[in-house]
Amino acid sequence: MADFNTVSQQFIQFYYRAFDENRAGLGPLYRDSSMLTFEGVPVKGAAAIVEKLTSLPFQTVHHKVVTCDAQPSSQSIASLIVSVTGLLLVSSNHLVTPSPH
To answer: Where in this chain does the record put each NTF2 domain (predicted)?
Structure first.
């Protein structure tokens, strides 16, 4: 695997740019077994996750990544665990401090 810190930084930049500009385009990043829990409600599957993300109550959002930690998650397959903390500026110009995601 390439340097996992470089890979994780590139993924984070790609993901949050896509989230900020076109949440509907995130579908290919998820699988049918993927899960998202938002405000205590679990959502499973790529289509359901994209539906949830596109139905959020704000039209525009900007992510500001504050910290990013990554580590390999398997010795047998190329995979990473990435933890990101940061800030969200939503369309109401309200700053939101989410928990790590």
So the answer is: 7-101
Domains of the chain in sequence order = 4-96 (3.10.450.50)
Q: Which tokens go with 51? A: 């539906």
Tens of pLDDT, residue by residue over 63-96, are 999 999 999 998 898 899 999 999 988 876 655 5
pLDDT tens by residue, 17-28: 999 999 999 999
Contact 71, 83 (CB under 8 A): no
Which three-class secondary structure state does DSSP give residue 5? helix
Instruction: Check residue 42 and give its pLDDT.
Output: 97
Beta carbons of 67 and 9 less than 8 angstroms apart: no
d(CA 55, CA 24): 10
pLDDT confidence of residue 59:
80
**Backbone phi, psi, residue 47, to 5°:** -65, -45
d(CA 19, CA 41): 20
